[in-house]
Amino acid sequence: MTLTPFKxxxxxxxxxxxxxxxxxxIERLPFTKPFGIFWAAVAYFGLxxxxxxxxxxxPVRSALGGSSTALVALLxxxxxxxxxxxxxxxxxxxxxxxGYHLEDGVSGGHCGIQDQAAAVYxxxxxxxxxxxxxxxxFRRESLLDCLTQVEKHGWGYGLIATRSLLALAAxxxxxxxxxxxxxxxxxxxxxxxxxxxxxxxxLIPLLEELARKGFNPGYLGQLLAVIKGQxxxxxxxxxxxxxxxxxxxLEVLRLVAAGLSNREIAAxxxxxxxxxxxxxxxIYGKLGVRNRTEAVTRAQEYQLL
Length: 305
Fold this sequence. Notes:
The protein is α+β, with helices and mostly antiparallel strands. It has three domains: 2-111, Ribosomal Protein S5, domain 2; 145-227; 247-301, Orthogonal Bundle (Arc Repressor Mutant, subunit A), CATH 1.10.10. 54% of the residues lie in helices and 10% in strands. The protein contains 14 helices and six strands. The protein has helices at 36-45, 66-84, 92-107, 114-121, 143-153, 156-169, 173-190, 194-197, 204-212, 217-227, 247-257, 262-269, 273-287, 292-301; strands spanning 2-5, 10-15, 22-25, 50-54, 125-129, 138-142. The chain has a four-stranded mixed beta sheet, covered by helices on one side. Strands 5-6 form a two-stranded antiparallel ribbon. Strand 5 and strand 6 form a beta hairpin. The termini are far apart. Mean pLDDT is 78; it is low at 58-64 and 230-239.
């Protein structure tokens, strides 16, 4: 993001994602144009006589997160200019709150918070708006903290998914490969495939790099084949799961179908409540469902009950 002097009373915006520069007088900034969120930011501060250049190849409204990141950068820059004019500079929560509402207003109420929050705070976090709470309008939950929890409770799918996401967000290739290697070791030991492949095509370069380094080439080849849509030795039909349930998971599933609660299942199988929850969590992941009702229905489709 670059700000340079321009004609008094006017503002210009250009981006590497667009061929044409736009220029308007400060009193007639068009919030409905492609640069709408950036005009809104300029209007909020009331600054003029400047030219904004966005150094990004991602056009606004591309759903790539580039516009939200550029908006945050512009708000930070404009906040510094306002400070030079004896205005109060914006804090990070201020920038996040303002950026979200500007983009939400311009887009007609279809804006999330994740992209703006990631640009403001960095790191690997999950963000949630706390509607109605003026003292704390949003909540940040570190995925690293999530990792601690899933490792503590032995939630296999959560551990694999979190490690996979951390691999994609890592600052260095070495860190990325370490996270992914851990996820793959756990996934293979538990017979999990779906959680890895659902992370998406972005994992392909890292998987291929691990394969080049000689890490478990057979398993990696299987994963890459599934992700790339090739035929593999694992077939998926109405009655075949990509990841078969273990004997214990089948036992838990039958009790779930019988209507027993997690606590009742734990007592019947002489297991801890946490272990039962882990089994149920894994069953949901392998069946690709979100709750007990869906699990029973899917299990019947696969003739597991």
